[in-house]
Amino acid sequence: MERRKKIIQYVIALLTAIAAVVSSLVTGATAVADASAGNGDLRSEGAEIFTGLGFDTCETPSLGAMSAWRKSNYRAVGVYIGGRGRACKKQTHLGRRWIREVTDREWKVLPVYVGSQSPCVHSKKKKHVPINKEPWSQGLEEGKDAVAKAAGLGMQERSAIYLDMEAYDRSDRNCAETTLSFIRSWSREVRSRGYFPGFYSSSTSGVKHVETARQRGVRDLPDVVWFARWNVPPSLYEEPVLDQTAWGPHRRIHQFKGNVVEEHGGVRLKIDRNLIDAPVAVVE
Question: How much is the pTM?
Answer without folding.
Answer: 0.87
